[in-house]
Amino acid sequence: MFNIIEKQKNYFNTHATLSVSFRVLQLKRLRLQIKAYYDQIITAFAKDLNKKEFDVVVTEIGLVMMELNYMIRHLKSFAKPKRVQTSLLNFPSKGIKIREPYGCVLVASPWNYPFQLTMIPVISAIAGGNTLVVKPSRSTPNVTNVIKKMLSIYDEEYVHVVTKEDEINQLFDSRFDFIFYTGSLNKARELMEKQAKFLTPMILELGGKSPCIVDSDANVDLSAKRIVWGKFLNAGQTCVAPDYILIHSSIKDQWLESAKKYIEKFYYEGEELSNDFVKIVNKPALERLQSLIDPKKIYFGGKTYGQVLEPTILIDVKKDDAVMQEEIFGPIMPIIEFTDFEEELKKLANMEHPLAFYYFGNDKDKIEKAKMFLSFGGGAINDTVMHLSEKNLPFGGLGNSGMGSYHGKQSFLSFTHEKSVLMKSNKFDLNLKYPPANQRRTNFLKKFFRI
Fold first, then answer.
1. Strands 405-406 and 395-396
2. Could you confirm whether 165 is annotated as catalytic?
3. Of the listed 167, 239, 310, 344, which one is catalytic?
4. Distance (Å, rounded) from C-alpha 183 to C-alpha 185?
5. Which one is catalytic: 60, 67, 167, 205?
6. Domain range spanning residue 169?
7. Is residue 212 flagged as an active site residue?
8. Tens digits of per-residue pLDDT, 208-242?
9. What are 89-137's pLDDT values in tens digits?
10. pTM, rounded to two decimals
11. Is 329 exposed, middle or buried (0-12, 13-18, 19+ CB in 10 A)?
12. Residue 223 region, left (φ>0) first, then alpha (ψ -120 to 50), else beta?
């Protein structure tokens, strides 16, 4: 691993990756690769997650292509140095802001959206002018294999995909110029501890228990439809899925009926669970989810079929139940009743900052309070999950749900450093800063600084 990083840093120091034309060319090559490997990507998802073509296009390839096309179209503008106004203190001069690449970047991605959450940071790193080491998930080996083959068009001194055990074991101890990590909180802590000696800048995309409030004036049927889709998308293995649902007691029964209706409509064929429902990634993950289900509180579902856990609703859930002690990351929907919006808001404000927050209702004052008084990575009003599909809305967490953000222009900004340069003229030199000091200069400066 250390040899690969040294090669990449040496290549970076040749300045080959600096030109915008080079970066755009590499992005266009990547676009051709994705199209060429389309069928293999679809097959790999079917094997790893039982994910069918429609879902792969919607949640994986489509988002990657949208980001890729956007970056190709706007990269020249993003990378252009920006002139800024300078003050009288530096007259005559001009200020320049330059976006420069970090250097050798590590992109480490998870298994739940193994193509999207690998390729969008890869696109960002290339657009930023970096070299990169890519570490996809071992839990989705078929998708990882396709990614490795796709990226083999690049020499390893530019892009290297890590799959060997010894290289993986060295990753967190290796010195990178920037790291983009998506995964668990515990692994993120380990990464930060090991990289502390290098003071490595990084983006962490983690998760947490993202709450969803359904208030008394919400559109019952539509909110149930959107929440069921967002919760059970990818069998709940989504970092921004609504983790648990806080439902106003006045509409709970009606809402549950609607939720059950949409679960059956979306995921069942008659009384049988559809063969298209995504499976849980592995047996340990399935066993963990099964341990979170209290049989006495099942309103709907709860059964397993091989490595598939059907959509499950739990009612009468309490804050101290097992399902409320950790991020669920599976197709289990806990329902908690509430009656006082202000009280629930106070409780949520005292919890760890979630990656996402959702509110369903139409009261403008409540919506404003939910937006302004709670800290969360991102979210939506009267919808779930879809905020991350908007390229003009940066995506990321804070606190235990992560740090930093990306998507759209923010991806380019995050994978580059903003360098400031003051361009001073030799035609004139203002003597204010030079000794010896005198009262006249002091008085002028006091007036200038408004002291």
1. antiparallel
2. no
3. 239
4. 7
5. 205
6. 2-206+403-418
7. no
8. 999 999 999 999 999 999 999 999 999 999 999 99
9. 898 999 999 999 999 999 999 999 999 999 999 999 999 999 999 999 9
10. 0.95
11. buried
12. alpha
